Amino acid sequence: MTRSLSTALLLLTLGCREHHDSRSGTSVGNPGKGTARIASASGLSIDSAQASGASIVAKSCHEVPTVATLIYADALDLLSPESFDVPEGTWCALELDLETLTLFGTGDSGGTLELNLGLAPFSLYTKGLDVDASTSWVIELGSPGWLDATEIGLLDDVFIGGDDVLHDLLEEKIYIASALYLDDGDGTVDEDEREKPVGDAKDKQVDEDKWGDGDASGAPGCRTTGGTRSLWLSLLSLFLIFSGRERASRRSP
């Protein structure tokens, strides 16, 4: 039952996501600073989080966009990240290609988590964000509570990999909840900054040649607004709770 419902949900959300191929560019001018980090969890502490095969590319707002590579690394620390240069200019999209997210965590009430999450490339869109030497960004993967100990059934030691239904649901949470924020320079997202995201999956301009009568989400008939974003996250949390309970019941004698 849980797997059937999860499959139906994934078919809907997969239709709302556009994938891109990363390209390289050159950083010029007086750069700003950027940071990419994982959002906090609920009911567990994240001990480490790392993306392997990591590439983050910025695209300008021109019809034939300028492309600048912000990060290209074999391993990217998402828990205690280092900053990177963001070239001066106006940028309309960030393309993130993070092949695998590996995360270890410890439950507040016991239990440990190992998560190996395969991620397809995805994009965050802005309405044209100006960058100069005074600008700081934070790319936050997921949103606070995206990983919840109750939802994943963290009663003892848990491993979630590619064959687990929870893998696909958590993957969707990353795509839906990730966002770009202006930062005061400390590399974290405070409450005031969180209220004003400057980029996420919902601000894409319509590409009528590619999507015909589609809308701003990047896929036909599937618009991701603030309200529907919250709805998708609520639905994903519901499926995760059912999946976590199912996992716990299978472990019980």
Overview of this protein structure:
The protein is α+β, with helices and mostly antiparallel strands. It has one domain (2-251). The chain is built from 5 helices and 10 strands.
- So what's the oligomer here? single chain
Number of strands: 10
Which overall shape is indicated by the principal axes computed on the Cα atoms?
A: elongated
Strand % is 25-35%
Low-confidence stretches: 1-27, 203-233
Percent range for helical residues?
Answer: 10-25%
How many helix segments? 5
Secondary-structure element string: HEEEEEEEEEHEHHH
Keywords:
10 strands; alpha+beta; 253 residues; 5 helices; 6-stranded mixed beta sheet
Concise overview:
This protein is an alpha+beta fold and 253 residues long. It is 24% helix and 34% strand.
